[in-house]
């Protein structure tokens, strides 16, 4: 039995290639999480308080510093460990200023590519061709490694091409959407560029289905995302009470129209 343990929660069970019983291989990552002892995100309309550790802060800083190069207002004087989640979200908002939907998505693509060593996408395609095992493996990795960005999540069973498999991830209440309160930021700065990056750069199809009623989200590895015009998220209206950039009179978020 092969067991790998890293220091960070929630626990993610990752199936090992060649093992019929996925419980034979586990990676445990314990991350700092929600401050409330219950570990449950706050109800809709209230902001969840998180207790971030060095693992989360490192990712916040890495992404924020890369994104800040594209943000309006120039680069700040923040040190590496001075970034927190609020300042990370603020950088995302500043990236949106003066850019249309496609340009915002392109910035995220450039930032993601800049985080990887040369040739990484090609290597990923070799290591993780679009098979059931690769899809389930990446779903398992998502739970601990995306925790800093989206909050608590769990691997779930989904149907892909008529076959049931555990390549889905259900995000309880997305931290990015909760903190930004912005539908356009969710779709343009997270959903679409993440889908496109996995599907087109890594060759592993991914569809993300945010639920704007409760801020949860479902990620399905192995499912090809629909064209933007056919995606229900493209027709979502603004959060009139949460978003400072909202236009309540519009039936669709104005950030999704341009």
Automatic annotation (TrEMBL):
GO molecular function term, any single one: iron ion binding
Keyword Isomerase found: yes
Isomerase as UniProt keyword: yes
Domain Beta-carotene isomerase D27-like C-terminal: 148-230
Any single Pfam family the record assigns to this protein: D27-like_C
Keyword annotations from UniProtKB, A to Z: Isomerase
PANTHER family assigned to the protein according to its UniProt record, in alphabetical order: BETA-CAROTENE ISOMERASE D27 (PTHR33591), OS08G0114100 PROTEIN (PTHR33591:SF4)
Protein name: Beta-carotene isomerase D27
């Amino acid at each position: 039995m092969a067991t790998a343990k890293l220091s960070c929660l929630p626990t993610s069970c990752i199936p090992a290639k060649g093992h019929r019983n996925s419980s034979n291989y586990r990676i445990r990552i314990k991350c700092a999480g929600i401050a409330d002892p219950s570990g449950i995100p706050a109800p809709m309309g209230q902001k969840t308080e998180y207790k971030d550790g060095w693992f989360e802060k490192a990712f916040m800083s890495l992404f924020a510093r890369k994104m800040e190069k594209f943000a309006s207002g120039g680069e700040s004087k923040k040190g590496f460990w001075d970034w927190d989640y609020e300042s990370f979200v603020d950088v995302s908002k500043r990236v949106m200023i003066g850019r249309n939907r496609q340009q915002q998505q392109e910035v995220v693509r450039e930032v993601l590519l800049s985080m990887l060593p040369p040739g990484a996408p090609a290597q990923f395609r070799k290591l993780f061709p679009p098979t059931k095992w690769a899809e389930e493996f990446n779903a398992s990795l998502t739970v601990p490694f995306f925790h800093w960005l989206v909050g608590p999540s769990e691997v779930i069973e989904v149907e892909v091409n008529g076959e049931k498999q555990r390549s889905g991830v259900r995000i309880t209440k997305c931290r990015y959407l909760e903190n930004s309160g912005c539908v356009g930021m969710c779709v343009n700065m997270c959903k679409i560029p993440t889908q496109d990056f996995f599907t087109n750069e890594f060759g592993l199809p991914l569809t993300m289905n945010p639920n704007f009623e409760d801020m949860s989200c479902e990620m399905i590895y192995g499912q090809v995302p629909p064209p933007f015009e056919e995606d229900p998220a493209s027709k979502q209206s603004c959060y009139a009470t949460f978003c400072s950039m909202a236009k309540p009179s519009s039936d669709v978020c104005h950030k999704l129209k341009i």
